[in-house]
Write a structure and sequence with these properties.
This protein is 76% helix and 0% strand. With 171 residues, the protein is mainly α. It starts with a helix and ends in a 9-residue tail after the last helix.
Length: 171
């Protein structure tokens, strides 16, 4: 697979870079993301945990976000650690839509978990009203909670957000 070959090359490049600059946040973060994208999840977790220690402020949110995804994709998934990583990303950047969306995905399938997920997704659509995946998940969660009218509303908004006009051709 050509894509996997590119990630292997990227990993080799970032390993060489971080060997010379071991405290470089962006190099370490990108190495962790390359591990994540190549399904080397244990290495991704370890590298992203290191990246978190190398920076502060808003930059740290991106490392926590990717760490959350890595924990989510582990076998078996580490949903509690994943949720904690997404919570940390959101604490740093409250407007981090993707972290809120993924946080909703890792909530347990319990009434309380569904309520927490709905809360996160409502914050997502308040920040980014056209974020279609949030409406899909909201529809599913409202359906599970037997809230048919809210489920239909969410799926209607989803449908509208996926329907668009093809712009006139400019010549």
């Amino acid at each position: 697979n050509a894509t996997m070959g590119r990630f292997k090359e990227a990993i080799e490049d970032y390993l060489r870079f971080t060997a010379v600059y071991p405290h470089h946040y962006l190099g370490t973060l990108n190495l962790g993301i390359a591990y994540l994208k190549s399904d080397q999840l244990d290495q991704a977790v370890s590298t992203l945990e290191t990246a978190i220690t190398l920076t502060g402020g808003d930059k740290k949110a991106r490392a926590y976000y990717n760490l959350g995804i890595a924990y989510y994709r582990l076998t078996p998934p580490a949903h509690e650690k994943s949720a904690e990583a997404f919570t940390n990303a959101i604490r740093i950047r409250p407007d981090y839509v993707e972290a809120r969306y993924w946080h909703a995905l890792v909530e347990p399938d319990t009434k309380k978990g569904r309520e927490n997920a709905i809360d996160q997704l409502l914050k997502v659509v308040a920040i980014r009203p056209n974020y279609a995946p949030a409406y899909f998940k909201l529809g599913s969660l409202y359906g599970a909670e037997q809230q048919r009218e809210l489920a239909e509303q969410a799926l209607t908004v989803l449908h509208r957000s996926l329907t668009f006009q093809v712009p006139a051709r400019v010549e």
